[in-house]
Design goal:
With about 350 residues, this protein is mostly helical. It has one domain. The chain has helices spanning about 10-20, 75-80, 85-90, 100-115, 130-140, 145-155, 170-185, 185-205, 215-225, 230-240, 260-270, 280-290, 300-305, 310-330, and strands at about 115, 170, 245-250, 255, 335-340. It starts with 7 loop residues before the first helix and ends in a 17-residue tail after the last strand.
Amino acid sequence: MRLLPVSLAAAATVLALVWVASRPPVGSEPAATGAKAPAAAPRKPAAATSSPPPAPVAGANPLAAVKAMPVKATLFNEFLAARDYRAIYDRLDGSPEGATAEGRLVLYEILRQCATITEGRRYTWKPPTPKPEEFLASIAPTDPNRDKRIAAYEQFTANRCAGFEGVSLTQAELDRLLAESAAAGDPRAKAMSIEQQLWQARRSQGRNGATITDDQVAALQQIAGTRDPEAIRVAGRVLSNSWADYSLRIGPGQQPIEPRAFMNAWLVLACEFGQPCGADTTRMQQACAMQGHCDAQSFPDYLWYYSSSPHDSQLLVQYRAYLRQAIETGDWSQLSVARGVPQLPNRVTFVPGPR
């Protein structure tokens, strides 16, 4: 891997060259553009009862201190690492393991991606992926990362759904799997259920009609407090999104969040709490294949080296400190919701992307 810059001036130069609109790999959570929230004060700003985290130190990579926990051997992580979902599906379908909260969630994830939905299918966003011949033609023979990009493309686009041609169910049956997992207490399923409810409300009420309630915000904070990395990832995505009559403020000064840096802070925390975030994950393979960003060895490394401006990196570190403090202590007083604040029309939307 190439050496990362160590001075702030050098960091700014490199980041200016490689900055791609402050977004991680195409199709992952920070996939859409939007405007910074207006700086109006909230109706009821939360009291800053916790000591603010220390300000980040300028100079070297501000994310260098991020230390990820070892990835646990769980069924969900087995699913994330799998290159063939059929074997896991056959093991879980109709088995005691498949009847657990985690088993129902993994069945939901597999069938959502692989099964044929016969009735009531809802739109699911997927990142555009070029055909193999188009992809190969797009890479110059002299590209120094050509071999890495081709290998990453083959891994990223591998058919993990082979053998599901005859498997079908309705959208209602698929949703039932997620609901059963959430009812059995799985925090990931609970967060996904809240996200699903909000998107259904937006589809029926329109962008300016669907809002996240205070109870849903509190539930997502509690879900993040379980320290499950996927639950943190989903809860953060929901809280980072733009909903009607909803704006977030953070820190002692209750400043409006900048959505991309805020979303990326949640993703970094998911890595820290045990989410697979190495170069072999689909999110990183996509970045290497589609953008030629192949030298980062972890997602936090990718964010600093390729995807965040110096300003965004500093914000990300600050947000991460506030959010980690809240997750570990249960004190969310540094984060408050402002209602009744005018919102700009070009608002950010984050959708699920490769993990």
